[in-house]
Specification:
Strand order of the largest sheet: 1-2-3-5-4-8-11-9-10
Oligomer: single chain
Distance between the termini: 53 Å
Number of helices: 24
Strand content: 5-15%
Mean pLDDT: 95
Largest sheet: 9 strands, mixed
Radius of gyration: 30 Å
């Protein structure tokens, strides 16, 4: 990390230059990724005790750690301006006045074997004074630039020695003008009470255990009229305070919740107290992609870019096995063969879990990458088990399985009576390829479109390539649906992903299958190219996956689709093969589930951010935030089906409204 003198730090602040550095004595870390009118401090975060004082200290590391505030710097790491103390409060306490900031005795225990010399005390006192000169410069700069400054002063406290119930969050306001800042105080407490932490009942109170009488609050009150300081004590529910062991899941959740609460509160306050007309919490986060994110993103892409699930799971001998099965549908079990896995799964996992995710400070971005890495690890387990009994287990881990509501939705759809005669399939594969090329030209997307003899599906997108099944024929409505599905969503999101600074959007976020397929089928519907037989196909995929998961054989599922649901043999084989390939592939139930969720999102939200790449519904709030922060680019291409109005079948519209 960059090492700067106090003078260099002050100069950068006065010139509004973003920087990340430590003071050259390592006593303070300063991170300013963007100048916004709020600061977060963790002045008791540090544990460092300088070398010449160590022999004189009567307290061991565990005793000092007990009274320090570990992880408080982590809680605020997502924010654009952070001051984090690195020295132990036992050397000098930044929350005490200069004349008593060096302990002789603390919490009933003497600190030193002998009194510190004047020289030793002077070094510690100068560190204390340096911090407050930097803080004063920073607040003065922000007040001058924005007319307002907020300071979130984060601490933690031991609670096991307190013989009563105490709040998880305690706001001390004794040094705050509560008449002037009443709305801000009430709003912050309301937000803290809505926080959810794993297995913890969250409570928040004002002036319960602590009153906010620390020196940092005194310093702000005495020197600045347009700065609101909020001294916050967090109960040490994130660790075992006696043994010093942390609870990583609580810390991870606390980071995300603190980011949301403090940015929302700051945005509300800025809107209320300044002349800004429109502002959200996303607007007051840094708008520059952090270097540690770029580095990890590139490393992840290098490791995982060649792992295409379907290219390994699609059988190589599908045509031959289909012919053999249809000749003996009652007793022949298809024996599919698959492409060999051409990567080392052990090395792959090792590389994944060595990625420095902990270096990412933004809580939500960090969590996104953690989930992507976990998903990729499960995907490699899926691919290494193709053709074995373990494949179904790994498919369930990766994709899940249909629940009772999914099955009920499928059965509801399958009870509907056909009300129109499907068009004859007179369009050849070559004609379909040309139609795809014309549509790509209309979008202005460069891509390669070619035929394939290895597909189970009629068409498939891989990156900027569209493959069309050379053995398939099409009617016009089905071809239109395929174009809106494959090109209008899958190719569009591939092209948009290539224009983003984060390559993870090319790899795919967790849940991207569910999301991509849901959006693609939504676009079929909006284009008016979504007949009942297509909706029934999605429902039958749910039925086939459910039968497979319940242990029915390939033959039993095929015969149920052919005889009970009146599918022709070709379609019954295709749906069955899709579910049984690899050893039991559960992905296909997600088409109907994804459609349901896409319809809900379409009715209630702007879908734009979901098309920036291979995204997931779960990550839409973060994608919206990153677009607002200008970290991600708005998608250059959007499905043309979204522009079509009142073009869909009213009967299908009614049925879709009925699925739950």
């Amino acid at each position: 990390m960059l090492q700067l003198t106090e003078a260099e730090v002050l100069d950068k602040i006065q010139q509004l230059i973003p920087f990340e550095a430590q003071l050259n004595d390592s006593s303070l870390t300063i991170r300013i990724s963007e100048y916004q009118p709020y600061i977060a401090t963790a002045i008791h975060h540090g544990h460092r005790l300088r070398g010449d004082l160590m022999p004189k200290c009567l307290l061991n590391e565990d005793e000092r750690y007990f009274e320090e505030d570990p992880f408080t710097g982590d809680f605020i790491s997502s924010l654009p301006i952070v001051l984090q103390g690195e020295d132990s409060r036992y050397e000098y306490d930044l929350n005490r006045a200069p004349d008593n900031c060096i302990y002789e005795e603390a919490w009933g225990k003497p600190v030193w074997t002998e009194p510190l010399t004047d020289t030793e005390r002077a070094v510690s006192l100068e560190k204390h004074n340096t911090y407050y000169r930097i803080l004063a410069c920073l607040i003065d700069t922000l007040e001058s630039h924005f007319g307002l400054c907020l300071l979130y002063d984060i601490h933690s406290y031991n609670h096991q020695r307190i013989d009563r119930d105490v709040p998880v969050f305690n706001l001390g306001t004794k040094q705050v003008n509560r008449r002037r800042w009443r709305k801000e105080i009430d709003s912050l407490m309301d937000k803290f009470r809505q926080i959810e932490l794993p297995n913890i009942d969250v409570t928040a109170e004002v002036n319960d255990v602590f009153q906010g009488m620390g020196y940092q609050a005194t310093f702000v009150k005495n020197n600045f009229t347009n700065t609101l300081i909020m001294p916050l004590e967090v109960k040490k529910v994130f660790m075992d305070e006696a043994r010093g062991e942390s609870y990583p899941l609580v810390i991870e959740k606390m980071k995300a919740e603190m980011k949301n609460v403090l940015t929302e509160h700051a945005a509300e306050t800025i809107l209320r107290r300044t002349k800004v007309k429109k502002l959200t919490s996303s607007h007051i986060l840094a708008s520059k992609l952090p270097r540690e994110v770029i580095k990890l993103d590139r490393q992840l892409y290098t490791i995982a870019r060649g792992v295409n699930t379907l290219s390994y799971i699609n059988p190589l001998n599908i045509k031959q096995e289909k012919r053999r099965f249809l000749q003996r549908p009652h007793d022949y079990q298809p024996d599919f063969t698959y492409r060999q896995l051409d990567l080392d799964p052990y090395k792959f996992r090792e590389q994944l879990y060595r990625l420095p995710v902990e270096d990412i400070r933004d809580a939500d971005i960090q969590q996104m990458y953690r989930k992507v890495i976990d998903q990729l690890a499960v995907r490699i387990d899926l691919l290494t088990s193709i053709g074995t009994d373990e494949f179904l287990y790994n498919s369930l881990r990766y994709y899940g399985q249909p629940d009772q509501q999914d099955i009920a939705n499928a059965n509801f759809i399958l009870h509907a009576c056909e009300y129109e005669v499907p068009e004859d399939e007179t369009i050849t594969a070559q004609q379909a390829i040309q139609a795809f090329k014309d549509a790509a030209d209309e979008y202005g997307i460069k891509c390669k479109i070619a035929g394939s003899k290895q597909l189970i599906a009629r068409a498939m997108v891989s990156g900027r390539n569209i493959k069309v099944n050379l053995g398939a024929k099409f009617n016009q409505k089905d071809l239109n649906a395929l174009i809106h599905h494959e090109l209008g969503v899958h190719l569009v999101t591939s092209a948009n992903a290539e224009m983003q600074p984060l390559k993870v959007l090319q790899l795919g976020l967790p849940g991207n299958t569910h999301t991509q397929e849901g959006l693609a089928i939504l676009c079929e519907h909006l284009s008016g190219s979504f007949p009942l037989h297509r909706l029934k196909t999605l429902a039958l995929r749910v039925i086939a996956v459910d039968m497979m998961v319940r242990g029915e054989t390939f033959n039993e599922t095929f015969h149920a689709l052919h005889h009970d649901y009146k599918l022709n043999k070709d379609d019954a084989f295709t749906i069955t093969a899709r579910a049984y390939r690899g050893g039991g592939f559960t992905k296909d139930y997600l088409y109907l589930k994804g459609l349901k969720d896409a319809l809900h999102a379409y009715a209630n939200e702007d879908l734009t951010s979901l098309f920036v790449g291979k995204t997931g519904f779960e990550f839409k709030p973060l994608l919206d935030e990153l677009i607002t922060r200008e970290i991600l680019n708005k998608p250059a291409f959007l499905p043309k089906a979204l522009e079509l109005k009142d073009n869909h079948d009213p009967i299908i519209e009614y049925m879709l409204r009925c699925i739950k």
